[in-house]
Structures are given as structure tokens and as C-alpha cells.
Amino acid sequence: MNKLISAVIGCLFIVESSASVIKGSIDTTQHADKIEPTIYGQFTEHLGYGVYDGVWVGENSEIPNTRGIRNDVVAALRELKVPVVRWPGGCFADEYHWQDGIGPREQRPVRKNNWWGGVVETNAFGTHEFFDFAEQIGAKTYLSVNVASSNPTEMREWIEYLTSDEPDTLANMRRGNGRETPFSLDYIGIGNESWGCGGAMRPEYYSDLYRRFAAFLHRNGRGFHNNNDNKALAVASGANNLDTNWTHVVTSNAGSMMDAISLHFYTLNNGEWPTRNELTATDITQESWNEIVYQASRMDDVLSAHEAVLEFNDPDNKIALYVDEWGTWYRPEIGNEPSFLFQQNTLRDAITASVTLNIFHKHTRRVKMANIAQTVNVLQAMLLTDGAKMAKTPTYHVFKMYLPFQNALPVKMDLKSPSRSHKEGNFDLVSGSAAIKDDGTLMIALTNADFGNGHSLNINLGKNYAINSAKILTHQQANAHNIPGENPTLEPFDYNGLVVLNEQLEVDLPAKSVLVLQLAPQ
């Protein structure tokens, strides 16, 4: 298959394969820990239009809603089977006081959002609204509690308000606010980016502060008091990027009191936080394409570095690694408030999401959760809204294509991919992952991050399979994206540029593409 021509959705894709064939193999007898659904988690912060307009419009809005929460956003996220949502931040969390967000909305205090634009925070979307949102989309809940500007008492009282089934004052306050039964609280993050916006702390100081807060969680689990009300897992505020010293100090000093430690890693131009001259989401050259794909590929090395620390401090693998903020970060779109972090979402973002998910599939021994930033209208969002209009982004479609990987067992996959040299290092032009489902279905994801060239692949499967489905996401234009209220430019479609014969999978993989296959054993 040297050249494949497919006419799909009114577009003509010509796949020019490179002269050499990329060889690969899959060994289904070698597998790692299962792919936890929570690796496909979401992050929603009080930032820009992420919550207000993105999730919450209020009961009196003309936009169709259920108890103030947008019906279209809920329906789209239910399609993704979102496993967990982290809230209320982010930097916002360490200035947030939970009692501001309960009770009659007209009586809730109005605050200034000091981190994100200095705008008014009405607190209309608070505890009950968040848990309602999570229940509507079918997701677990992950609270990031205020450590930097609060104390353990406030955290403890929030947890009691949420989880107590007794006739105590806080539980009765919850009942008086309309919720008789306790909420389901699944994860508690003790602080956020405590090295930065969450208090500018040193790891030695934070680890002692973590111990103090964790002592008042009153829950079942390692190092905690027994109490059946609170069963949430405890998550320490982790490092930024390659700061392995933070991971070492915090887990050395407080590891016995945590179930997981977080890690934040963003895909940034030159690996640095955005500046005025940062790349935009849609102005894409081959050079800027390669820069962003290279930075995304660094996730593999970053995870390995922190895992090495955890293996030393926690050889019994009791502390999970949660990458609870990740994704692309560009200069905000012109015409929008810069601090709202609104950016478009293109085919390049779909590629980086796919590259990253493939990497997570390699690290399932430690990586048990990941939360892309963010769900709606902020950074690498799943969804973009404009009034009553909504668009599913290319990243959304990648997450949906990868849905069958949830709970599957990742198996060994070797690809002899050519690499591309770029500034600080190299990245594979073609990457992938494979996993086996309970019914024996073999899942294969392949990502061609080559800006201009298709590639032919020949992968030894070890046994015969039949093709159940093959979905591809690709486009001639690197900056192809979807706009709320307009017909989508970019969506997955069925692909026939492959064949399985004599235990061999042969694929013509277009440039700038993500392909997900489901193969049935014969």
C-alpha cells in the first residue's frame, strides 16, 4: 500500500507513505497494570469561562439546563464517560473558602478572583452545584482543599459537611441546604502547586504542613483514624515538571500519610511558562508543530524520573502518581482577556493528547490518574462554548476514540519509528500503545506526529485478528479546528487504509493523524 486515497467528509486525503516500512510487534503475553479509567480525568477551575458559561448558566438561563448546569455540556461529557473531575482549582483553590459556596445563592458572598483576571466571583457555583455536576455526568469527585490561606479545621468541617450521615450540626446544615444523603467524596488534594501559587513553599515546609492537615482527615486508610464517613483517598501536592527533589522530600517525610502525590506537566513552547511572544494555538508552522510535539513527548522522561524517586522511597508501590494537570498551553486568543487562558484547539492538540495518552499507558504501575486542563473553555479544553453554541474539540474526539482502553490491560508494543531531531532532543514520529480487553479484543492506538509525511507500518500481532473497527482523526490542515455553532471541520471517521493478513497488520498512516483500532481474535 504505497499510496491510499480516501474521500471522506467532502475532503480528499492523499497518504504518501515513506519509502521504508516501520516495523513493529505486539506481545499480548506481556502486560502491565490495567489502564485506570481515571487516567482520562478532567480538571475544572474557576478560571475564565471554564465554570461560568462553560458549565453553569443558572436555572433562569435560556440555554437548556438542569438546575443551572448546561444540558449540552453534560451530554457531551457523558459521551466521554468522564471518570473523575478535579475542582475548584488550581490556584483558585488556595483562596477558596467552601462556606462561601453554600446556602441561598443570593446570600452568598461575592469575592474577587485574584488569580484569574480580578473578576467578580459570585460563588453561584459551589459545593452542591459541583457535586450535582459530577453526578449528572457520572464522574467521581476530586476536591482540592485550601492549604495556603486556610487551616485543617476548615478542611475537616468541609469533609464533615459532605460526608457525615449523623445528626451533627454540619450534616444538618447540608440537609438544610437541600441534600439529605451524604455526597460521594472520592479524592482529597491537600493543596495545589504548593511550591508556587499555592503558598511558595519549600518541600520541607510543605511536607510538615501536609502531615498536619492529613492528621485531621479522619478517614480509613494508612496512617489515619478510623471513620466510615470519609473514605476519600489523600493526595499530596506534587512537583512541577522535573522537580524530583520535591517528590523525594515530600514522600520521604510524609509518604506514610498519603495515597498519591500529584505532578503537573504542561506542554509549553521551549518548556517555559507562556510569555507575550508565546506560540498561538492556530498559527502553526512545521517548526512550531515539532516544538509542541517534542515538548509533549517529554512526558515519558518526566514520569520515569519521578517514578524512580517513588521506587526508592516507596518500593511497595503504595503511593500512586496523579498527573492532575497536563495539556498544551499557548498564548490566549487575541480579543479575549489574557488571564482567562482561552485558546483554540486544533489537530496539533489532538496529536499531543494522543502522544500523551500513549505514554500514560506505559506507566500504569504508578500513574493511576491524570486530569487534562481543562474541561471547558480553558487551555486544552474538551469543549468550547459561545453563548448557547458548543463545539467538541479535536482533543475531545481523541478522548472518545480512546474510550475502549479504559480498564484494558496494556501489552508490550515495539515500534521501530524514525525520529525527528528538534532543539534539545528527539521525538518519535510514530508512537502507539496496545491493550487487551476482557473479551480478548486487541486495542491499538497509532499516532503519526509527522507534519508532512505519511508512514507505512507492518506490525506482527502474534496471532490472527479480524478488524472490528478503525477510526481515524486527520486533516490536511495542521490548524484544523471546530468552532461553536458551525459545522465541525474535524471529526473521526471510519478508515480502510489497513489490512490484517497472516498475523500481520499493515497500515498506511497519514501525516498528522490518530488511528484507533479494535481487533477481534480469530
What is the CA-CA span between the terminal residues? 24 Å
- CATH architecture grouping of the largest domain: Alpha-Beta Barrel
Task: Compute the number of structural domains.
Answer: 2
Tell me the name of the CATH homologous superfamily of the largest domain. Answer: Glycosidases
Rg, alpha carbons: 23 Å
Strand fraction equals: 25-35%
Mean pLDDT: 94
Taken from the alpha-carbon principal axes, the silhouette is: globular
| Residue share in helix | 10-25%
Structural class: alpha/beta
Q: Please name the CATH topology of the largest domain.
A: TIM Barrel
- Largest sheet properties: 11 strands, mixed
**Helix count, DSSP H or I runs of 4 or more residues:** 10
Oligomer: single chain
Structure overview:
This protein has 522 residues and is an alpha/beta fold. It is 22% helix and 31% strand. The chain folds into two domains: 141 residues, Sandwich (Immunoglobulin-like), CATH 2.60.40; 371 residues, TIM Barrel (Alpha-Beta Barrel), CATH 3.20.20. The N terminus is likely disordered. It starts with a strand and ends with a strand. The strands form six sheets. Strands 1, 2, 17, 20, 21, 22, 23, 24, 25, 26 and 27 form an eleven-stranded mixed sheet that branches. An eight-stranded parallel β-barrel has the order 3-6-9-10-11-12-13-14, surrounded by six helices. It has a two-stranded antiparallel ribbon with strand order 4-5. The protein is globular, with a radius of gyration of 23 Å. The chain has ten helices and 27 strands.
